[in-house]
Amino acid sequence: MEKVLKSLTLDFFGRGKHKTSPHAFFQVQDGFLLDVRSREEAESISIRLEHHANIECKNIPINEVPDRIDEIPKEKTIAVFCPAGVRSSIVYAYLLSKGYSNVRILEGGYAALTEELKPGKVLKILQGQG
């Protein structure tokens, strides 16, 4: 973890290397959306992305990440999601400390995510234009 913390410089944050927008993330070829909300939150408002064939989505509550880390693929582009970014930031740093290199925080919380999932954008995905 010490190595990870030392790499988090002004240059790193200034260039936004720790985050991705939902729009940019949905463009990746092989993405993994890691939803770190509690089970209860995920059961109340689920995120499945069934029509985004390039994105796998999985809810692993933050407190379960250490025990379920083998469910998080190292070979995919990972975006970590929670509503406010606090839990995402913690899991982001944890994954970096475990050797994950292609991981980002999904910025904007629910508002940014739902903006990217509005009807017109989903229709483009369904029509193969997304």
Automatic annotation (TrEMBL):
PROSITE patterns: RHODANESE_3. SUPFAM superfamilies: Rhodanese/Cell cycle control phosphatase. CDD domains: RHOD. Residues 27-122 form the Rhodanese domain. This is Rhodanese-like domain-containing protein.
